[in-house]
Amino acid sequence: MAAWTFHAPGNLQDFRDPKNWHAAMTSETRDIVTLLVASVLQKNPDDVTAADIDKERGNLAYVDPTVDAVPAGAETVAIQPWSGFPRAVERRAPWAEYPPTADDASGNFRAVEHLGEEDFREGVFVDRDDNMLHLPVRDRQDEYLEWAARRDGQGRIIKLIFVAEGYDYFATLFREDEQRVLELYKEFTGVSTLKVDDLRAPKGIYRRLRNGTLREVVKPGDFNPRNRHNINPGIVHLSQRANSLSAEVNLAGVSAIGRKKVSGALLDGQDAEELLCCNEGGDPNRNSDPLISQQAYAQVLGKYRYTLADPIGLYIAGVAEAGLLLPDNRTRVPREWWRATRGSGLWSSTSRVLRLELEVPAAEKLTISDLRVAGNPVTHSGQLAELLSVHLFVTRWKRSQDSIGPVVACTGTCCRRGNQLYGSDGTCGQGDQLAFPGLVGAPQPAASNAGMAKKPARLMTR
Question: Which pLDDT tens digit goes with each residue over 411-449?
Fold first, then answer.
């Protein structure tokens, strides 16, 4: 076994026993290796044996660093950052329910603030006694960045908080140290009367599908990542279903293998959406998923081996500070008004910021609503979200042999409906178009929209 320790995102010190976080990330990493070996051997992951893994792991681009030592000469690099404002929201514009206004012509800034359950496409939430639960979250903020605004009595924005911490980090911490999670909630919501049970799902959370099937979301007694205190009055961590740290690990892993089209030609990865539709690693309508997949795949084609850099995390990469000006519409907002309260390194290329707050000092006698973005006053928090980007890091090194490792067939493709893509086996709904021919076998005859099976694009996220 290699001498490797997974540290908490941003090197946070929340865990009393850091070995517990290490164990959680070790499990995630080994699951990815198992999935990749299953792809190579064309097996069900449950049927992959330890002998299979020992035989194949050395050929994979993705490395479990707890087993195979990372070479001394390996380099850690940040992948290209992506915009924190959801592309899926932009692709659905213009929003009929949000008529054009002077400060939001497309409706995007109002649409992105929606609270609901759109991150689960089917069914309703219930507990183990089949009581229906209402658990809305920031369901359209799906770029591993979510935010909340605090306003004064006149509706002016006085503080903006952005977070990039996965809810599964808090769930893991809750299992070890409920009091530490409670402390963080009290600190970031300002609600001193909170109790541990306010953050728990006492009877579990399940998603009841239309056919009556129950899918477990949270075990009874575990942390409830969709608890209302993370929505109002504060924001502590990410809440949208796809915004988990495990989703990042899965996506970086599933992309770590060569892919070929039906013709046998190697997929070059130049089209990030095509690649994601091929490997079914995430949602092609996001900024984040196609880019993460493409950057991971570039390591494969570049004949690198790699692992997600320690500490594994999704981080706020930076702020396009030239886009936010004082009321004179000329002077940049001072950097000191931005404060990283979890993580560090905001104004560097190696930023590992997890929580970022913007607040105008009281002495300035201004609010955030007095500031300017693109010449306009800040009326919607999404105007600031457009200025933020997110990134992650990989540690890589060149292969010792002139090879990209195993190559497997694409497992899916996508159809296009308007500006949006959805995952498919090659069958598209009536009136929709196959976006990327040649990834899988010839499409079947078009079905009607009413009868079309809507295959979720985000296959690997949890």
Answer: 999 999 999 999 999 999 999 999 999 999 864 444 433
Tokens 């997974």: give the residue. 6
Q: What is the DSSP string of 109-175?
A: HHHTT--BSTTS-S-EEE-TT--EE---B-TT--SS-EEEEEE-TTS-EEEEEEE---HHHHHHHHH
Single-letter residue type at 275: L
β-sheet bridge partners, residue 325: 332, 372
pLDDT tens column, 372-396 = 999 999 999 999 999 999 999 999 9
Q: How far, in Å, CA of 437 to CA of 414, rounded?
A: 9
| Rounded Cα–Cα distance for residues 123 and 241 (Å) | 14
Q: Residue 282 CB: number of other CB atoms within 10 A?
A: 27
427's CB contacts (< 8 A; 6+ apart) are: 415, 443, 444, 446, 447, 452, 453
**Res. 273: pLDDT tops 60:** yes
Which tokens go with 327? 């009321």
**Phi, psi dihedrals of residue 359, rounded to the nearest 5°:** -150, 135
**Quick one: which of 168, 324, 129 has its CA closest to 246?**
168
Contact 36, 52 (CB under 8 A): no
Which strands form 324-325's sheet, in the order they lie side by side? 324-325, 372-373, 376-377
Which residue intervals of 349-418 are DSSP H helices?
382-385
The span from the CA of 31 to the CA of 50, in Å, is 12
Mean pLDDT value across residues 279-283 = 94
pLDDT tens digit sequence for 77-115: 999 999 999 999 999 999 999 999 999 999 999 999 999
Q: pLDDT tier at 253 (50, 70, 90 boundaries)?
A: confident
3-state secondary structure of 88: helix
pLDDT tens for each residue of 216-233: 999 999 999 999 999 988
Gap between the Cα atoms of 94 and 447, Å rounded: 27
Nearest partner of 430 among 421, 417, 439, 420, judged by Cα: 417
> Residue 96 is encoded by which pair of tokens?
């009929």
Query: Residue holding tokens 């056919």?
Result: 211
Do residues 194 and 186 lie in contact, with contact meaning Cβ atoms separated by under 8 Å?
A: yes
Question: What is the C-alpha separation between 312 and 14, in angstroms, rounded?
Answer: 15
